[in-house]
Amino acid sequence: MGEILLELKNVKKAFDGVGVLEGVSLSIEKGEFITFLGPSGCGKTTTLRIIAGLEQPQEGQVLLEGKDVTALPPHQRDVNTVFQNYALFPHMNVADNIGYGLRLKKTPKDEIRKKVKEMLELVQLSGYEKRKPQELSGGQKQRVAIARALANNPKILLLDEPLGALDLQLRRAMQLELKRLQKKLGITFIYITHDQEEAINMSDRIVVMNEGLFEQIGTPDEVYNFPKSSFVATFVGNANIIPGVVERMQPGQALVSVCGGKALVRWNGKDLQPGEPVTLAVRSENIEIDENCGCGLEALVEEKSFSGGMLRMTLRLPDGQQIIASRYGIDANVAVGQKICFRWSASNAVLVDRKETP
Fold this sequence. Notes:
Elements: E1 4-15, E2 18-29, E3 33-37, H1 44-52, E4 59-64, E5 67-68, E6 79-83, H2 94-104, H3 109-122, H4 138-150, E7 156-160, H5 168-185, E8 188-193, H6 196-202, E9 205-210, E10 213-218, H7 220-225, H8 230-235, E11 240-250, E12 253-258, E13 261-266, E14 277-282, E15 288-290, E16 297-307, E17 310-316, E18 322-328, E19 339-343, E20 349-352
Parallel strand pairs: 3-8, 3-9, 6-7, 7-8
Antiparallel strand pairs: 1-2, 1-4, 4-5, 9-10, 11-12, 11-14, 12-13, 14-20, 15-19, 16-17, 16-19, 17-18
Helix pairs in contact: 2-3, 2-4, 3-4
Protein backbone atom coordinates (compact mmCIF):
# COMPACT_ATOMS: atom_id res chain seq x y z
CA MET A 1 0.00 0.00 0.00
CA GLY A 2 1.23 3.49 -0.90
CA GLU A 3 1.47 6.60 1.24
CA ILE A 4 -1.93 7.79 2.51
CA LEU A 5 -2.55 11.40 1.50
CA LEU A 6 -6.19 11.99 2.42
CA GLU A 7 -8.55 10.29 4.87
CA LEU A 8 -12.26 10.67 5.47
CA LYS A 9 -13.32 9.28 8.84
CA ASN A 10 -17.02 8.65 9.49
CA VAL A 11 -18.10 11.86 7.71
CA LYS A 12 -21.77 12.76 8.14
CA LYS A 13 -23.65 15.66 6.59
CA ALA A 14 -27.31 16.69 6.54
CA PHE A 15 -29.14 19.64 4.99
CA ASP A 16 -32.35 20.79 6.72
CA GLY A 17 -32.41 17.57 8.72
CA VAL A 18 -32.13 15.33 5.64
CA GLY A 19 -29.05 13.08 5.65
CA VAL A 20 -26.80 13.50 2.62
CA LEU A 21 -23.73 11.60 3.86
CA GLU A 22 -24.35 8.75 6.29
CA GLY A 23 -20.95 8.23 7.90
CA VAL A 24 -18.50 7.59 5.04
CA SER A 25 -14.86 6.62 5.45
CA LEU A 26 -12.09 6.36 2.86
CA SER A 27 -8.29 6.45 2.54
CA ILE A 28 -6.77 7.88 -0.66
CA GLU A 29 -3.16 7.30 -1.61
CA LYS A 30 -0.68 9.83 -2.94
CA GLY A 31 -0.73 9.91 -6.76
CA GLU A 32 -4.03 8.04 -7.03
CA PHE A 33 -6.78 8.81 -9.56
CA ILE A 34 -9.97 8.07 -7.65
CA THR A 35 -13.50 8.65 -8.93
CA PHE A 36 -16.75 9.11 -7.03
CA LEU A 37 -19.45 7.59 -9.24
CA GLY A 38 -23.17 7.67 -8.62
CA PRO A 39 -26.55 9.12 -9.62
CA SER A 40 -27.63 12.70 -8.97
CA GLY A 41 -28.32 13.35 -5.30
CA CYS A 42 -26.18 10.49 -3.96
CA GLY A 43 -23.74 12.82 -2.12
CA LYS A 44 -20.80 12.99 -4.57
CA THR A 45 -20.52 16.77 -4.78
CA THR A 46 -21.12 17.20 -1.03
CA THR A 47 -18.20 14.81 -0.37
CA LEU A 48 -15.99 16.83 -2.72
CA ARG A 49 -17.02 20.15 -1.12
CA ILE A 50 -16.21 18.78 2.35
CA ILE A 51 -12.74 17.74 1.12
CA ALA A 52 -12.29 21.22 -0.38
CA GLY A 53 -13.44 22.97 2.80
CA LEU A 54 -16.49 24.52 1.10
CA GLU A 55 -18.82 22.56 3.42
CA GLN A 56 -18.44 21.49 7.04
CA PRO A 57 -19.52 18.00 8.15
CA GLN A 58 -21.75 17.58 11.20
CA GLU A 59 -19.59 14.65 12.29
CA GLY A 60 -16.32 13.05 11.25
CA GLN A 61 -12.88 14.20 10.19
CA VAL A 62 -10.93 15.11 7.07
CA LEU A 63 -7.21 14.37 7.41
CA LEU A 64 -4.63 15.66 4.90
CA GLU A 65 -1.20 14.05 5.33
CA GLY A 66 -2.32 12.98 8.81
CA LYS A 67 -3.29 16.52 9.85
CA ASP A 68 -6.91 17.27 10.80
CA VAL A 69 -8.07 19.94 8.33
CA THR A 70 -11.82 19.53 8.98
CA ALA A 71 -12.24 23.08 10.31
CA LEU A 72 -9.74 24.80 7.97
CA PRO A 73 -11.04 27.17 5.25
CA PRO A 74 -10.38 26.29 1.59
CA HIS A 75 -7.37 28.60 1.13
CA GLN A 76 -5.54 26.87 3.99
CA ARG A 77 -5.84 23.43 2.40
CA ASP A 78 -3.45 22.32 -0.30
CA VAL A 79 -6.26 21.40 -2.71
CA ASN A 80 -7.71 23.05 -5.81
CA THR A 81 -11.07 22.51 -7.52
CA VAL A 82 -12.07 22.46 -11.20
CA PHE A 83 -15.81 22.97 -11.77
CA GLN A 84 -18.04 21.98 -14.69
CA ASN A 85 -18.76 25.62 -15.57
CA TYR A 86 -14.99 26.47 -15.69
CA ALA A 87 -15.43 29.61 -13.50
CA LEU A 88 -12.97 31.64 -15.62
CA PHE A 89 -12.84 35.42 -15.26
CA PRO A 90 -14.34 36.79 -18.53
CA HIS A 91 -12.46 40.12 -18.31
CA MET A 92 -9.04 38.42 -17.98
CA ASN A 93 -7.07 36.80 -20.77
CA VAL A 94 -5.85 33.19 -20.58
CA ALA A 95 -2.47 34.06 -19.04
CA ASP A 96 -4.06 36.23 -16.32
CA ASN A 97 -6.64 33.53 -15.52
CA ILE A 98 -3.94 30.91 -15.09
CA GLY A 99 -1.74 33.19 -12.99
CA TYR A 100 -4.56 34.53 -10.78
CA GLY A 101 -3.93 32.25 -7.79
CA LEU A 102 -0.20 32.91 -7.93
CA ARG A 103 -0.79 36.69 -7.88
CA LEU A 104 -2.93 36.27 -4.76
CA LYS A 105 0.05 34.55 -3.14
CA LYS A 106 2.26 37.54 -4.07
CA THR A 107 4.43 35.34 -6.29
CA PRO A 108 7.09 37.40 -8.18
CA LYS A 109 6.02 38.39 -11.72
CA ASP A 110 8.83 36.56 -13.49
CA GLU A 111 7.94 33.35 -11.64
CA ILE A 112 4.29 33.78 -12.62
CA ARG A 113 5.24 34.26 -16.30
CA LYS A 114 7.42 31.14 -16.19
CA LYS A 115 4.69 29.08 -14.51
CA VAL A 116 1.98 30.28 -16.92
CA LYS A 117 4.18 29.32 -19.89
CA GLU A 118 4.81 25.90 -18.34
CA MET A 119 1.09 25.32 -17.69
CA LEU A 120 0.12 26.35 -21.24
CA GLU A 121 2.60 23.83 -22.63
CA LEU A 122 1.25 21.17 -20.27
CA VAL A 123 -2.35 21.59 -21.47
CA GLN A 124 -1.23 22.13 -25.09
CA LEU A 125 -2.42 25.75 -25.37
CA SER A 126 0.87 27.56 -26.08
CA GLY A 127 0.16 30.76 -28.02
CA TYR A 128 -3.28 31.30 -26.44
CA GLU A 129 -1.99 33.65 -23.69
CA LYS A 130 -3.78 36.80 -24.92
CA ARG A 131 -7.14 35.26 -25.76
CA LYS A 132 -10.20 35.96 -23.65
CA PRO A 133 -12.43 33.07 -22.41
CA GLN A 134 -15.20 34.00 -24.88
CA GLU A 135 -12.75 33.39 -27.74
CA LEU A 136 -12.17 29.77 -26.65
CA SER A 137 -14.04 26.53 -27.32
CA GLY A 138 -15.49 24.51 -24.44
CA GLY A 139 -12.55 22.11 -24.45
CA GLN A 140 -10.05 24.98 -24.45
CA LYS A 141 -11.83 26.70 -21.53
CA GLN A 142 -11.68 23.45 -19.58
CA ARG A 143 -7.93 23.19 -20.22
CA VAL A 144 -7.43 26.75 -18.98
CA ALA A 145 -9.42 25.96 -15.82
CA ILE A 146 -7.27 22.88 -15.23
CA ALA A 147 -4.06 24.84 -15.89
CA ARG A 148 -5.15 27.52 -13.39
CA ALA A 149 -5.81 24.87 -10.73
CA LEU A 150 -2.49 23.08 -11.39
CA ALA A 151 -0.45 26.31 -11.35
CA ASN A 152 -0.67 26.36 -7.54
CA ASN A 153 0.95 22.90 -7.28
CA PRO A 154 -1.88 21.45 -5.16
CA LYS A 155 -1.43 18.12 -3.42
CA ILE A 156 -4.94 17.19 -4.57
CA LEU A 157 -6.91 18.30 -7.61
CA LEU A 158 -10.70 18.02 -7.17
CA LEU A 159 -12.73 17.78 -10.38
CA ASP A 160 -16.51 18.14 -10.16
CA GLU A 161 -17.98 16.67 -13.38
CA PRO A 162 -15.46 18.75 -15.37
CA LEU A 163 -16.35 17.25 -18.77
CA GLY A 164 -20.14 17.32 -18.36
CA ALA A 165 -20.67 20.31 -20.67
CA LEU A 166 -18.61 18.87 -23.55
CA ASP A 167 -19.86 16.81 -26.48
CA LEU A 168 -19.17 13.06 -26.51
CA GLN A 169 -16.17 13.07 -28.86
CA LEU A 170 -14.44 15.93 -27.05
CA ARG A 171 -15.26 14.39 -23.68
CA ARG A 172 -13.51 11.16 -24.66
CA ALA A 173 -10.47 13.09 -25.91
CA MET A 174 -10.34 15.07 -22.65
CA GLN A 175 -10.56 11.85 -20.60
CA LEU A 176 -7.30 10.71 -22.20
CA GLU A 177 -5.80 14.18 -21.72
CA LEU A 178 -6.68 14.30 -18.01
CA LYS A 179 -5.27 10.83 -17.42
CA ARG A 180 -2.06 11.82 -19.25
CA LEU A 181 -1.73 14.96 -17.12
CA GLN A 182 -2.35 13.08 -13.89
CA LYS A 183 0.25 10.41 -14.64
CA LYS A 184 2.81 12.99 -15.78
CA LEU A 185 2.39 15.20 -12.70
CA GLY A 186 1.82 12.45 -10.12
CA ILE A 187 -0.84 14.60 -8.40
CA THR A 188 -3.77 12.92 -6.64
CA PHE A 189 -6.95 13.48 -8.68
CA ILE A 190 -10.38 13.12 -7.03
CA TYR A 191 -12.97 13.08 -9.78
CA ILE A 192 -16.78 13.20 -9.74
CA THR A 193 -18.98 11.80 -12.48
CA HIS A 194 -22.28 10.00 -13.06
CA ASP A 195 -20.82 8.50 -16.26
CA GLN A 196 -19.77 4.89 -15.67
CA GLU A 197 -17.69 4.73 -18.87
CA GLU A 198 -15.72 7.80 -17.79
CA ALA A 199 -15.07 6.28 -14.35
CA ILE A 200 -13.93 2.94 -15.77
CA ASN A 201 -11.65 4.53 -18.39
CA MET A 202 -9.83 6.91 -16.07
CA SER A 203 -9.72 5.63 -12.50
CA ASP A 204 -7.28 3.67 -10.39
CA ARG A 205 -10.18 3.09 -7.99
CA ILE A 206 -13.89 3.86 -8.11
CA VAL A 207 -16.11 4.77 -5.15
CA VAL A 208 -19.68 3.87 -6.10
CA MET A 209 -22.09 6.04 -4.09
CA ASN A 210 -25.78 5.57 -3.39
CA GLU A 211 -27.99 7.53 -1.00
CA GLY A 212 -25.11 8.97 1.02
CA LEU A 213 -23.19 5.71 1.40
CA PHE A 214 -20.20 4.10 -0.29
CA GLU A 215 -21.74 0.97 -1.84
CA GLN A 216 -18.41 -0.36 -3.11
CA ILE A 217 -14.80 0.80 -3.38
CA GLY A 218 -12.53 -1.00 -5.81
CA THR A 219 -10.62 -1.04 -9.07
CA PRO A 220 -12.64 -0.71 -12.30
CA ASP A 221 -12.25 -4.48 -12.80
CA GLU A 222 -13.51 -5.26 -9.28
CA VAL A 223 -16.49 -2.93 -9.52
CA TYR A 224 -17.50 -4.14 -13.01
CA ASN A 225 -16.81 -7.87 -12.75
CA PHE A 226 -17.38 -8.45 -9.01
CA PRO A 227 -20.16 -6.07 -7.90
CA LYS A 228 -21.16 -6.48 -4.26
CA SER A 229 -24.72 -5.19 -4.60
CA SER A 230 -27.48 -5.17 -7.18
CA PHE A 231 -27.23 -1.36 -7.22
CA VAL A 232 -23.54 -1.50 -8.28
CA ALA A 233 -24.25 -4.28 -10.77
CA THR A 234 -27.00 -2.30 -12.51
CA PHE A 235 -25.47 1.20 -12.22
CA VAL A 236 -22.08 0.10 -13.57
CA GLY A 237 -22.77 -1.88 -16.71
CA ASN A 238 -26.50 -2.64 -16.52
CA ALA A 239 -26.36 -6.24 -15.32
CA ASN A 240 -29.37 -8.54 -15.16
CA ILE A 241 -30.49 -9.05 -11.55
CA ILE A 242 -31.94 -12.53 -11.19
CA PRO A 243 -33.51 -14.02 -8.02
CA GLY A 244 -32.98 -17.68 -7.28
CA VAL A 245 -32.87 -20.38 -4.60
CA VAL A 246 -29.86 -22.54 -3.73
CA GLU A 247 -30.39 -26.18 -4.72
CA ARG A 248 -27.07 -27.73 -3.71
CA MET A 249 -23.37 -27.00 -3.35
CA GLN A 250 -20.48 -28.52 -5.30
CA PRO A 251 -16.75 -27.63 -5.32
CA GLY A 252 -16.39 -23.92 -6.17
CA GLN A 253 -19.99 -23.62 -7.39
CA ALA A 254 -23.61 -23.54 -6.31
CA LEU A 255 -26.49 -24.96 -8.31
CA VAL A 256 -29.32 -22.43 -8.20
CA SER A 257 -32.96 -22.82 -9.15
CA VAL A 258 -33.57 -19.77 -11.30
CA CYS A 259 -35.75 -18.54 -14.21
CA GLY A 260 -37.79 -21.74 -14.25
CA GLY A 261 -34.70 -23.91 -14.60
CA LYS A 262 -31.33 -24.52 -12.98
CA ALA A 263 -28.00 -22.72 -13.41
CA LEU A 264 -24.57 -22.62 -11.82
CA VAL A 265 -22.89 -19.71 -10.04
CA ARG A 266 -19.28 -19.49 -8.90
CA TRP A 267 -19.04 -19.61 -5.12
CA ASN A 268 -16.11 -20.41 -2.83
CA GLY A 269 -17.72 -19.32 0.44
CA LYS A 270 -18.80 -21.74 3.14
CA ASP A 271 -22.13 -20.34 4.23
CA LEU A 272 -24.61 -21.02 1.38
CA GLN A 273 -27.40 -23.35 2.44
CA PRO A 274 -29.83 -25.38 0.28
CA GLY A 275 -33.17 -23.56 0.15
CA GLU A 276 -31.55 -20.15 0.76
CA PRO A 277 -32.82 -17.31 -1.49
CA VAL A 278 -30.01 -15.57 -3.40
CA THR A 279 -29.62 -12.81 -5.98
CA LEU A 280 -27.43 -13.22 -9.06
CA ALA A 281 -25.98 -10.52 -11.31
CA VAL A 282 -25.15 -11.53 -14.89
CA ARG A 283 -23.85 -9.03 -17.45
CA SER A 284 -25.87 -8.81 -20.68
CA GLU A 285 -22.77 -9.62 -22.75
CA ASN A 286 -22.36 -12.87 -20.78
CA ILE A 287 -25.82 -14.19 -21.71
CA GLU A 288 -25.34 -16.89 -24.37
CA ILE A 289 -28.18 -17.49 -26.83
CA ASP A 290 -29.05 -20.95 -28.17
CA GLU A 291 -31.20 -20.24 -31.23
CA ASN A 292 -32.26 -23.91 -31.61
CA CYS A 293 -33.16 -24.24 -27.93
CA GLY A 294 -31.06 -27.34 -27.39
CA CYS A 295 -30.29 -26.56 -23.75
CA GLY A 296 -30.56 -23.78 -21.18
CA LEU A 297 -33.38 -21.62 -19.84
CA GLU A 298 -36.38 -20.89 -22.07
CA ALA A 299 -37.50 -17.40 -23.12
CA LEU A 300 -39.23 -15.48 -25.91
CA VAL A 301 -37.41 -12.77 -27.90
CA GLU A 302 -39.46 -9.66 -27.13
CA GLU A 303 -37.32 -6.86 -28.66
CA LYS A 304 -34.16 -6.33 -30.71
CA SER A 305 -32.28 -3.04 -31.00
CA PHE A 306 -28.86 -1.91 -32.19
CA SER A 307 -26.75 0.72 -30.42
CA GLY A 308 -23.05 1.49 -30.05
CA GLY A 309 -21.93 -1.55 -32.01
CA MET A 310 -24.02 -3.89 -29.85
CA LEU A 311 -27.19 -5.79 -30.65
CA ARG A 312 -29.46 -5.83 -27.59
CA MET A 313 -32.19 -8.41 -27.19
CA THR A 314 -34.92 -8.33 -24.57
CA LEU A 315 -35.93 -11.84 -23.56
CA ARG A 316 -39.15 -12.52 -21.66
CA LEU A 317 -39.25 -15.51 -19.33
CA PRO A 318 -42.39 -17.61 -18.67
CA ASP A 319 -42.86 -15.83 -15.31
CA GLY A 320 -42.76 -12.41 -17.03
CA GLN A 321 -39.23 -11.41 -15.95
CA GLN A 322 -37.09 -9.73 -18.60
CA ILE A 323 -33.45 -10.57 -19.36
CA ILE A 324 -31.22 -8.37 -21.54
CA ALA A 325 -28.70 -10.13 -23.77
CA SER A 326 -26.18 -8.28 -25.95
CA ARG A 327 -23.60 -9.21 -28.53
CA TYR A 328 -21.37 -7.38 -31.00
CA GLY A 329 -22.84 -7.06 -34.46
CA ILE A 330 -25.93 -5.72 -36.15
CA ASP A 331 -28.09 -8.86 -36.19
CA ALA A 332 -28.52 -12.41 -34.93
CA ASN A 333 -30.45 -15.34 -36.38
CA VAL A 334 -33.37 -14.83 -34.05
CA ALA A 335 -36.67 -13.04 -34.67
CA VAL A 336 -38.97 -11.15 -32.34
CA GLY A 337 -41.52 -13.64 -31.02
CA GLN A 338 -39.16 -16.62 -31.43
CA LYS A 339 -38.67 -19.08 -28.61
CA ILE A 340 -35.00 -19.52 -27.71
CA CYS A 341 -32.90 -20.77 -24.82
CA PHE A 342 -30.20 -18.87 -22.96
CA ARG A 343 -27.50 -19.67 -20.43
CA TRP A 344 -24.34 -18.31 -18.85
CA SER A 345 -21.12 -19.85 -17.56
CA ALA A 346 -20.84 -20.17 -13.78
CA SER A 347 -17.80 -17.87 -13.75
CA ASN A 348 -19.91 -15.02 -15.17
CA ALA A 349 -22.60 -15.09 -12.47
CA VAL A 350 -21.93 -13.09 -9.29
CA LEU A 351 -23.88 -13.30 -6.02
CA VAL A 352 -24.89 -9.82 -4.81
CA ASP A 353 -26.72 -8.23 -1.85
CA ARG A 354 -25.28 -10.84 0.45
CA LYS A 355 -23.92 -10.43 3.97
CA GLU A 356 -21.18 -13.02 4.22
CA THR A 357 -20.37 -14.44 7.61
CA PRO A 358 -16.68 -14.28 8.64
